[in-house]
Amino acid sequence: MLKIYLVRHGATIWNAEQRIQGHTDVPLNETGLEQSRRIAQRLKDQKIDAVWSSDLTRARVTAEILAEPHGLTVNTTPLLRERRFGDWEGLTQEEIVARGDRQLLDAYRAAVVADLPPNAESMQSVWNRLSQALKEIIHLHAEGQVVVVGHGGSLRVILCQAMRAPMECVRHIWLDNACLSLVEFNGDRSWVRLMNDTSHLS
């Protein structure tokens, strides 16, 4: 049995301003650092065998805070990154509309798999690299407990894959900053035991 704790990174100033981050390397703000300390406190008594993270700063720093009580070094990989949002990165909804992309924004919201922001990464590409990341982690850690720190988009893909849900289901999952989810794998079986738990932030 392998248990994977999925942790979305703590908050950034762009989260607070509702700006699209994607691959832009935005650091945690003070709220995000405190959120990371709280989820680290929640997991400190678990026997964690490894910590994996996206290589983007907001995820990596969250992971380092989580790993410190366990004396672990964080394994980083770009495979766990958020989706690349191309020309929309750094923009708010209002700024996307102001640049003339209202129709495209509406289409993207209606069909996140089929419609793309300009110069963005396809959902199929995101799906494929998260599938690769998950396979590599499971191959290296056949059992025990592993923490994976990622992003709203990347972790929703992992949750869908664990549930054998189609790609379109990613738009029906919500993950808050510094939330905790839990997925278990046993051979070719997998199930979600916890999703978007933020009780440690209360």
Give the helix/strand layout.
Layout: E1 2-8, H1 13-16, H2 30-43, E2 50-54, H3 57-67, E3 74-77, H4 93-98, H5 102-110, H6 123-140, E4 144-150, H7 152-162, E5 180-186, E6 189-197
Parallel strand pairs: 1-4, 2-3, 2-4
Antiparallel strand pairs: 1-5, 5-6
Helix pairs in contact: 2-3, 6-7
Order of helices and strands: EHHEHEHHHEHEE
> Helical amount among residues, as a percent range?
25-40%
User: How many angstroms does the end-to-end distance come to?
Assistant: 30 Å
**Contiguous uncertain segments of 5+ residues:** none
CATH class: Alpha Beta
Total of helices: 7
* Assigned CATH superfamily: Phosphoglycerate mutase-like
CATH architecture: 3-Layer(aba) Sandwich
The tally of structural domains comes to: 1
Number of DSSP E strands: 6
**In percent terms, what proportion of residues is strand?**
15-25%
Strand order of the largest sheet: 3-2-4-1-5-6
Overall shape: globular
Largest sheet: 6 strands, mixed
Structural class: alpha/beta
| CA gyration radius, whole angstroms | 16 Å
The chain-level mean pLDDT equals 96
* CATH fold-level topology: Rossmann fold
How would you classify the quaternary structure?
A: single chain
Can you give a write-up of this model?
The chain is an alpha/beta fold and 202 residues long. It has one domain (2-86, 122-201): Phosphoglycerate mutase-like (Rossmann fold, 3-Layer(aba) Sandwich), CATH 3.40.50. The chain is built from 7 helices and 6 strands, in the order βααβαβαααβαββ. It has a 6-stranded mixed β-sheet with strand order 3-2-4-1-5-6, with helices on both faces. A hairpin with a 2-residue loop joins strand 5 (180-186) and strand 6. Helix 2 (30-43) runs parallel beside helix 3 (57-67) and helix 6 crosses helix 7 (152-162). The longest helix is centred in the middle third of the chain and has 18 residues, at 123-140. The radius of gyration is 16 Å and the shape is globular.
